[in-house]
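--- STAGE predict ---
source: upstream dedup step, 1 unique chain passed
mode: sequence only
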Amino acid sequence: MISSIFPKDAQNAFKVRLSIKTALGDNAYAWDANEEYLFKAMVAFAMRRYSSKSTTQISNVLLCNVTDRVSFWFVVTDSSKNVTTVPGSEVEEAIRMNRNRINSAFLLSDKTLQFLKITSTLSPPVEPSTPVWLIVFGVVLCLIVAGIVFLIVAGIQQRKKKNKESTERENLEEKGEVTLTVENGIPCETLDLKAGHVNGVFAADDERFTSL
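--- STAGE serialize ---
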């Protein structure tokens, strides 16, 4: 169908599809002759901005096969030779360069204003307000500080534990406490390691032998 309208240069034609209702909802506008004029003007603007030597006029942008669902084909003719179309590669580059301006004119986006043979433009990457290297440095510094704090706390707890064990050991030694043992079911008396203990039976024998 396109080749019947542009028999020699159908390969330089581009199909456009607009989803106005989807994008704007209740605020959607009707596609009419005024909107077509604006589209031609934006394409002519894109061609002039793409090449300083271009003298493209609105009349050089031709539309055909316009449907109620708002889709159509267009070509750009050479202003010096009105019967020859501009190569599709140049039109594509011009559209890509000015895609945001064209979208803004119709309050649409790459998804709701589609040039089917032209790939969507990529939005410039959003740069964080804080440099990436500063974020990485902050994370590494936090990890180092956390490690140092952990080692300090662990060392303090270990020292307290050793001091507590040492204090308990000293108290046991000062009191001279010895575990009470049981011999033949009879508990033995706790021995006084410091003062010693005298057995009464042996003491009596010693006194008897001494008197003899």
